[in-house]
Amino acid sequence: MSTNLTLIIVAGVLVGSGVTLILERSLTRILVGFVLAGNGLNTMFLVAAGASGRAPILGQGDGPMSDPLPQAMVLTAIVITLGTTAFGLALAYRSWQLTGTDDVQDDLEDDLIRRRALHDDVSSTYEDQDATQLPDEEGFDEGGFDDGRVRDTPAEEDA
Amino acid sequence: MTFFDQLVLFPVILPLLGAGLCLALGQSAVAQRTISIVVLLAVVATSVVLLYRADTYGPQVLNVGGWPAEIGISLVADRLSALLLITSTFVTLCVLLYSVGQGIVEFGRETPLSVFFPTFLVLSAGVSCAFLAGDLFNLFVGFEVLLAASFVLITLGGTHARVRSGTIYIIVALASSALFLLALASVYAATGTVNLAQLAQRMPQLPTETATVLQLLLLVTFGVKAAVFPLSAWLPDSYPTAPAPVTAVFAGLLTKVGIYAMIRTNSLVFPAHEIRSLLLWASILTMIIGIMGAIAQSDIKRILSFTLVSHIGYMLFGIALNSQLGFSGAIFYTIHHITVQTTLFLIAGLIEYRAGTTNLDRVGGLARRTPILAVLFFVPAMNLAGIPPFSGFIGKLALLEGGVAAGDWLALLGVAAGVVTSLLTLYAMAKVWSRAFWQPFGEYESDDISDDETQLVVGGSLHGASGVSTSTKKESNWDQLAEEQRLPMRMALPTLLLASATVALTVFAGPLIALTDRAAAEITDPNRYVHAVLCNPRNWDESEAILPRSKETVHFCEQFEGVAK
Question: Does a structural domain hold residue A100?
Answer without folding.
Answer: yes
